[in-house]
Amino acid sequence: MSQRVLTTESGAPVADNQNSASAGVGGPLLIQDQHLLEKLARFNRERIPERVVHARGSGAYGHFEVTDDVTDYTHAEFLDTVGKRTEVFVRFSTVADSLGGADAVRDPRGFAVKFYTREGNYDLVGNNTPVFFIKDPIKFPDFIHSQKRDPFTGRQEPDNVWDFWANSPEATHQVTWLMGDRGIPASYRHMDGFGSHTYQWTNSAGEAFYVKYHFKTNQGIRCLSAEQAAETAGQDPTSHQTDLLQAIERGVHPSWTLHVQLMPVAEAADYRFNPFDVTKVWPHRDYPLRRVGRLVLDRNPDNVFAEVEQAAFSPNNFVPGIGPSPDKMLQGRLFAYADAQRYRLGVNHTQLAVNAPRATTAENYGRDGLMAANNQPRYAKNYEPNSYDGPVETGRPLAAPLPVSGHTGTHAAPQHTKDDDFFQAGELYRLMTEDEKKRLVANIAGGLSQVSRDDVIDKNLAHFHAADPEYGKRVAEAVRALRED
Ligand code: HEM
Question: Is 471 annotated as a binding residue?
Answer without folding.
Answer: no
